[in-house]
Amino acid sequence: MRKIRTGIIGFGQISRILHAPMVASHPDFELAGIVQRHGNACQEAYPQATHYTDHLEMLKDESIELVVVASPNHLHYSMAKEALEHGKHVLVEKPFVLHKAEGEELIRLADAVEREIFIFQNRRLDGDFLTVKDLIAKNTLGEIQRFVSTWNLDRPVLPLEQQSRPWKEAELEGNDLLYDLGPHLLDQALQIFGLPLHVEGRLEKERPGTKVADSFAIRMDYDSLVVELEASRAAKEQTPRFHVTGAEGVYEKYGFEVQEAQLSAGMSTEEEDYGVEPEESWGIVRFRDGREEKVPTLPGNYRHFYDNVADVLLFEEQPLVQPAEALLHLELIERLEEAHGPEGK
């Protein structure tokens, strides 16, 4: 069976710990090229792949079928468009693009050139999210009344010379936290509950010296349910990652999903303990009748996203994430941006 020759644009943290190892180790893919503008860390890590400093040079390689766009957010649209115009399938990191109109244009272009667009909503494969989704599907908590999803970090603004990824703090369009974590939290909520009746929210700059909106809160109203999505880079106190209230009980889960930490430590997705969370990190259901029950966190595996990409390209299966779903995230994000201004308050 042929392998899908793949090129990666960008060799930042997400490519180093996730995309490059996934492509290089997956039996259905071949890591053919990596674009790294500065330095040669990609060449040292993956000598079998051609090192490019210009993504347009890599796009000239007609043998490359799939291009992973893992560049800064404001470059997603232009680089994905150029890849499609060169006849490549594209896998785009979130956010898909910065504006719904750009996403619609890329979808039309992909249809015209008969190529696929994959949006890397890997948080659908988080173990804690899969656990919450399973509890709700099984009606363990009864009718859901309130769903709170929080992603709080303590990330002070460092002097420029101490920043490992200075572009993350730069005053660039699409660089605020709403575009960074918003697509993940929105995608997870929409996966469970569908489109809300009403959406409102706030964007703020909380950290001293920040140039980007580093905090957001979104409220989505349904018939008998409220969904609250919150994230901050200025959080000092630990808060539950998920707090789900139902008619029969409440589920509360602290701590972040384990896969990113495992990948950062060099763990392979094929190792037995990959994606497995220790018991002390499991969430708890507190039932209305006074019972408490620890809930084992289901194992997640981001490799399944690449399994799906291979199934689509080799066997014409359906993508795990439809591009039209990413347009819904952008529509909601644009509504919030318009209400608060692109800089937040």
Report the strand count: 14
CATH superfamily of the largest domain: Dihydrodipicolinate Reductase, domain 2
Strand content: 15-25%
Shape: globular
Q: What is the typical, i.e. mean, pLDDT?
A: 94
Our measurement of the CA-to-CA distance between the termini, rounded to an integer number of angstroms, reads 54 Å
Runs with pLDDT <50, length 5+? Answer: none
- Helical stretch tally: 11
Major sheet strand order: 8-9-10-7-11-12-13-14
SSE order: EHEHEHEHEHEHEHHEEEEEHEEHH
Largest sheet: 8 strands, mixed
CATH architecture of the largest domain: 2-Layer Sandwich
Total number of domains: 2
Q: Kindly report the CATH topology of the largest domain.
A: Dihydrodipicolinate Reductase, domain 2
Pfam families: GFO_IDH_MocA (PF01408), GFO_IDH_MocA_C3 (PF22725)
Keywords: Oxidoreductase
GO molecular function: nucleotide binding; oxidoreductase activity
Organism: Anaerotalea alkaliphila
